[in-house]
């Protein structure tokens, strides 16, 4: 790959004219674009290199755009989400992705039951923003974005952001003005409630109970919200921690060499890994994939309405489930690990402390709490990290946190941070390993 680029980009110093240099740079970028289309293994096998390229191109766009290009990009960004949502509703991405050959507007009109003239306008826009390819006049094909959007979980993400999150984003500016630009201290009265015209005391999770379709989209999206990203439970240091603490007993019940009877309270109490607020169990499945050879007893906990929707696959994998409310208590005592992924970000400090305090009360002296979250750097936080923070603010009065903010929270709940397992440099995701203070 490098030789192809170098061929297009000979020693720039030999060019005295800046225009010549720029022309060569443009040629090299075009060459990169062609190479990216062929998905070179150098990029696939080197996520840091791929990410550097992605960041460089994104920064370059910001540096070279004119004011009017900036306005076109920024002011119309919501239009892309709107069109993606219509494309998902019509099944355009799935249809293009599974078709062996490119499809005409008429083909797609037939499969989507949309009027051809209207569909043509939508397809033109989707192609212009790079979500599908315009192969020739009135003929469309898939690209990298199309195949991402053809994934049902990513389509659920579009539905979730469009239907549940967008009204909260839209309300945040006036909500902040109304609250004198102060950080929210309570989990009720959110921009989300304002945007959805819901009662102020209703949190997003309570609202989901009355909106089962939105709940399905959210829970499905949680399985993929960091698409292509690494999983904290698969990090070798986390697996080692689990392995090294196996073979003992919990509340007098042997963990290895035969679990107590299914459904018995002794079995639930013998849990090694408790995924607290684990949604539909994506991380439990990932852990089971990594430790299938071990008797690690995995328990998935979430609200009753979520546990009720867990697939039979979870039980087939030997993962137990338990409905809980983590604000009311932690019923499983002395587990090896209590795992919280993307939980504390949902809540202001007061509510996050209650969740940790209930776990603290259930822990033995050898239990760990693993907090799997994006940790905001003190300087130079990236787009993914800060847009998550803005979204948590708008949806739940929640917050992404720096390590100092996490430490304060952890300390306030009687815990201490004993290790940090950074498993994704790209996104700043870490597993914060905590134990009871000694
Ligand atoms: C952002 S999602 C994270 C899900 C999962 N841990 C993951 O990383 O994919 C937050 C989860 O917390 C659950 N949750 C919210 N309030 C809860 C409560 N009071 N008790 C238990 N679970 C709750 C939600 O149902 C949801 O599954």
Task: Tell me about this structure.
This is S-adenosyl-L-methionine-dependent methyltransferase. The protein is globular, with a radius of gyration of 25 Å. It is α/β, with parallel strands linked by helices and about 450 residues long. A hairpin with a 2-residue loop joins strand 4 and strand 5 (about 255). The protein folds into three domains: about 30-150, Winged helix-like DNA-binding domain superfamily/Winged helix DNA-binding domain (Arc Repressor Mutant, subunit A), CATH 1.10.10; about 155-225, no CATH class; about 225-435, Rossmann fold, CATH 3.40.50.150. The N and C termini lie far apart (about 55 Å). Strands 6, 7, 8, 9, 10, 11, 12 and 13 form an eight-stranded mixed β-sheet that branches. Strands 1-3-2 form a three-stranded antiparallel β-sheet. A two-stranded antiparallel sheet has the order 4-5. Helix content is about 50%, strand content about 15%. Helix 11 (about 150-180) crosses helix 14 and helix 11 packs across helix 21.
Number of domains: 3
Q: Supply the CATH class of the largest domain.
A: Alpha Beta
Mean pLDDT: 88
Which structural class do you get from the secondary structure elements? alpha/beta
| Spatial shape | globular
Low-confidence stretches: 247-258
Give the biggest beta sheet: 8 strands, mixed
Q: Helicity level, as a percent range? A: 40-55%
Radius of gyration over all CA atoms, rounded: 25 Å
| Share of residues in strands | 5-15%
Counting DSSP H or I runs of 4 or more residues, the number of helices is 22
Which ions and ligands are bound to the chains?
A: S-adenosylmethionine
Number of strands: 13
In CATH terms, what is the fold-level topology of the largest domain? Answer: Rossmann fold
Cα distance, first to last residue?
54 Å
For the record, the CATH architecture of the largest domain stands as 3-Layer(aba) Sandwich
Q: Give me the CATH superfamily of the largest domain.
A: Vaccinia Virus protein VP39
Protein name: S-adenosyl-L-methionine-dependent methyltransferase
Pfam families: Dimerisation (PF08100), Methyltransf_2 (PF00891)
Keywords: Methyltransferase, S-adenosyl-L-methionine, Transferase
GO molecular function: O-methyltransferase activity; protein dimerization activity
């Amino acid at each position: 790959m490098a030789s192809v680029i170098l061929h297009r980009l000979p020693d720039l110093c030999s060019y005295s004219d800046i225009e010549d240099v720029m022309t060569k740079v443009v040629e090299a970028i075009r060459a990169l674009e062609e190479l990216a289309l062929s998905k070179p293994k150098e990029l696939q096998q080197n996520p840091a290199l791929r990410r550097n390229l992605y960041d460089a191109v994104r920064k370059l766009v910001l540096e070279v755009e004119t004011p009017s290009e900036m306005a076109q990009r920024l002011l119309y960004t919501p239009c892309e989400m709107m069109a993606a949502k219509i494309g998902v509703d019509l099944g355009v991405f799935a249809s293009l992705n599974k078709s062996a050959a490119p499809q005409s507007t008429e083909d797609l009109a037939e499969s989507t039951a949309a009027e051809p003239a209207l569909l043509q306008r939508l397809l033109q826009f989707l192609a212009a923003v790079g979500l599908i390819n315009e192969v020739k006049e009135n003929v469309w094909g898939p690209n990298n974005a199309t195949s991402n959007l053809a994934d049902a979980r990513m389509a659920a993400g579009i539905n979730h952001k469009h239907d549940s999150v967008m009204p909260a984003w839209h309300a945040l500016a006036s909500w902040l003005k109304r609250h004198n630009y102060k950080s929210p201290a309570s989990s009720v009265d959110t921009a989300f409630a304002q945007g959805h015209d819901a009662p102020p005391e209703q949190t997003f999770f309570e609202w989901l109970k009355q909106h089962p379709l939105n709940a399905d989209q959210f829970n499905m999206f949680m399985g993929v919200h960091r698409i292509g990203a690494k999983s904290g439970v698969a990090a070798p240091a986390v697996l080692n921690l689990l392995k090294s603490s196996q073979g003992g007993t919990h509340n007098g019940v042997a963990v290895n060499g035969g679990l107590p009877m299914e459904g018995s309270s002794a079995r639930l109490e013998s849990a090694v890994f408790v995924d607290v607020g684990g949604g539909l169990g994506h991380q439990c499945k990932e852990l089971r994939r990594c430790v299938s050879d071990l008797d690690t007893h995995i328990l998935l906990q979430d609200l009753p309405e979520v546990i009720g929707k867990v697939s039979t696959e979870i039980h087939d994998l030997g993962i137990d489930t338990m409905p809980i409310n983590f604000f009311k208590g932690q019923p499983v005592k002395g587990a090896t690990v209590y795992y919280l992924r993307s939980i504390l970000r949902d809540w202001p400090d007061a509510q996050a402390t209650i969740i940790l305090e209930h776990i603290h009360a259930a822990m033995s002296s050898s239990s760990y709490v693993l907090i799997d979250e994006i940790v905001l750097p003190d300087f130079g936080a990236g787009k993914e990290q800060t847009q998550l923070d803005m979204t948590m603010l708008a949806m739940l009065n929640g917050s992404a946190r720096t390590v100092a903010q996490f430490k304060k929270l952890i300390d306030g709940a009687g815990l201490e941070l004993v290790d940090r397992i950074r498993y994704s440099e790209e996104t700043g995701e870490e597993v914060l390993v905590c134990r009871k203070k000694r």
